[in-house]
Amino acid sequence: MRTKKKIVLAYSGGLDTSIILKWLQENYDAEVICYTADVGQELDKKKIKSNAKKLGVKNIIIKDLKNTFVKDYVYPMIRGHAIYEGVYLLGTSIARPLIAKDQISVAKKFKAFAVSHGSTGKGNDQVRFELGYHYFGPKIKIIAPWRIWKLKSRTDLINYAKKNKISIPQDKKGAPPFSVDDNLFHTSTEGKVLENPKNSTPEFIFQRTTSPEKAPNKSSFVTINFKRGDPVGINGKKLLPYKLLDKLNNLAGKNGIGRVDLVENRFIGIKSRGVYETPGGTILMTAHRAMESVTLDKETMHKKDEVMPRYAELIYNGYWYSKERFKLQKIIDLKRNKVNGSVKLKLYKGNITIQSRQTSSNAYSMKKVSFEENKTFNKSNVERFINFHKKKLR
Fold first, then answer.
1. Which CATH number does 187-355 carry?
2. Which residues participate in catalysis according to the annotation?
3. In a 3-state reduction of DSSP, which class is residue 68?
């Protein structure tokens, strides 16, 4: 008896990937292995296994990647202050490279001939997944159902699900759900009423943040401790990366911090609207910049700001494993060993206010900046400095 070929499917247990699972079974003479990466999303392992088993799947793999995700992907991105088009903290973008890498490792383990994903034919994730697949498994076939099947819309998917007795989840209003992606760093919501930019965002779609209006009337305070450019603790207590981010998510979320409503330019040339929640990440971005302000020199900080837009665009476009991203990361991390200390923040109704910065670094000199007369700064040199720059105007 010949051994069946194998396909490893990135499987969430939800509507889209359950339909893809069934479709792969119908269209390929192969065993489908369901692979789920736990990157901190809301995860019902029993439901994932139950839904896959109902469709005859024997191998269901759920990998806990939360700490790796935060330590090796989110933290380097925070060090680069990566923000796409001025507002997007790249929460979906940064998870895809890790998932693709680990999915390929599973495919190699089971000697699968192909991998598959549930990204739509109009979105960015198909690019991000497939660039990652190619980097780690260039000889492994990629099956992208949304680009080749005859199902063209959400309505087609729901009809296909009904025909094959696949359960259809409902949102809080009893209708088929929005398109949602979540992980430990963020939650994104797209589709339905949000597709028309003139529509306001309904409050019920927010999953991890309280509205600023309903946030506590009393301020919360938090101190982030940094070592070598990475957050290592909260209020002096050391925490593993994923636990630290989880704690900040809860704290920021209840204070209404981290909401963004944006229309972004997708890599493939389409404008799309999404509502993103990145509570803990918003705190970390603010705290990290504040920490660098008293530990890094002007030239290093400005060079980082100069490369950031390109660095963010590479992540957004799926080029995490590119030579260019690796090169920019070296520039970003050149003096990270100097970024040590702590930043205290006040959180209040959607706002973050820096309270204090503490460090043993000598990059910031109180003597030089003081308005009191001192001998550490020679003001007579300033006139020569200005005259030098006057010449550059001509």
1. 3.90.1260.10
2. 16, 96, 125, 179
3. helix
